[in-house]
User: Which sequence fits this backbone?
């Protein structure tokens, strides 16, 4: 199986699971292959044969994008570390959940969550620490006794009772001894409480790394109070936002087929993510929008002094 076939397999799983999918786009260098929405769940998905091909800088931009559009990043792969990845196990690469297509199928079609996660040293599970603690106390089982049964230290049992993950075999021994279901399902998309966002806005000093049209557009937007999240490996150049608005922002200096293709892709992504979009141009275009996306030229933007005017233009040209 090659990567394109794997992407199609993942698309098929998501489609059967009731997800609304972004259009097919096999653009080299893009950090994602699929954006999928179902109800309030929005996923940005990268599909590779080998998880080892995932680069840290791409993962970082993927997480920045997801924070900006309130989405969850996800990797789908078949191989990791030269070995086949296992069904029903949640892995991680560069802080992004990773699984095989079969695990995704179990979740979105069969409604069966994973129970095992991979971490350095092996496979682990999460146990119901409250039940473990209550059952041990009710039955007056000492920490030493439970530690002997599980084959671990007393300190480990204490940590399990506080929520620490356990080796799969250890958890199974405890379940068998106590006659209780202790192993909990895993939500691979749940952000830990207090986990900080990855969103990184452009500082004014960073504008110096840009030139030409991009620099001019970014300067105009930041001057009226917008925050800019650059997206180097997306079909659009930046996320533009304030406290009320998030815009997928494309920038184009040419009126040609590339502009139409960019507009088509951004329009589709705008619909999937349920975020507004705009394309900024070097000069005026014969239409006010393309593929339903409002167009604003550089000079026009430079003359704007209030973000409300931008919103009015977008509404008028949408």
Assistant:
């Amino acid at each position: 199986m090659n990567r394109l076939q794997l992407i199609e397999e993942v698309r098929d799983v998501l489609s059967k699971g009731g997800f609304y999918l972004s259009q097919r786009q096999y653009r080299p260098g893009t950090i994602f292959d699929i954006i999928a929405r179902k109800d309030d769940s929005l996923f940005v998905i990268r599909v590779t044969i080998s998880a080892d091909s995932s680069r840290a800088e791409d993962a970082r931009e993927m997480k920045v994008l997801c924070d900006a559009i309130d989405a969850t990043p996800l990797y789908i792969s078949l191989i990791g570390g030269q070995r086949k990845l296992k069904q029903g196990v949640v892995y991680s690469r560069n802080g992004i959940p990773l699984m095989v297509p079969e695990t995704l199928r179990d979740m979105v079609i069969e409604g069966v969550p994973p129970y095992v996660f991979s971490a350095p040293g092996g496979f682990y599970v999460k146990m119901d620490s409250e039940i473990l603690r209550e059952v041990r106390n009710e039955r007056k089982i000492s920490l030493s006794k439970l530690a002997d049964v599980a084959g671990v230290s007393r300190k480990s049992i204490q940590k399990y009772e506080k929520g620490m993950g356990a080796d799969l075999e250890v958890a199974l021994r405890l379940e068998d001894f106590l006659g209780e279901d202790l192993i909990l399902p895993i939500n691979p998309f749940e952000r830990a409480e207090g986990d900080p966002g990855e969103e990184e806005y452009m500082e004014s000093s960073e504008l110096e790394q840009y030139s030409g049209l991009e620099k001019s557009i970014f300067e105009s937007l930041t001057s009226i109070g917008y925050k800019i999240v650059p997206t180097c490996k997306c079909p659009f150049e930046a996320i533009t936002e304030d406290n009320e608005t998030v815009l997928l922002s494309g920038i184009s200096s040419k009126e040609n087929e590339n502009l139409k293709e960019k507009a088509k892709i951004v329009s589709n992504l705008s619909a999937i993510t349920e975020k507004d979009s705009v394309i900024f141009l070097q000069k005026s275009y014969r239409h006010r929008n393309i593929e339903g996306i409002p167009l604003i030229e550089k000079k026009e933007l430079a003359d704007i002094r209030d973000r409300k005017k931008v919103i009015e233009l977008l509404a008028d040209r949408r």
In short: The chain has a mean pLDDT of 89. The longest strand covers residues 41-47. The radius of gyration is 24 Å.
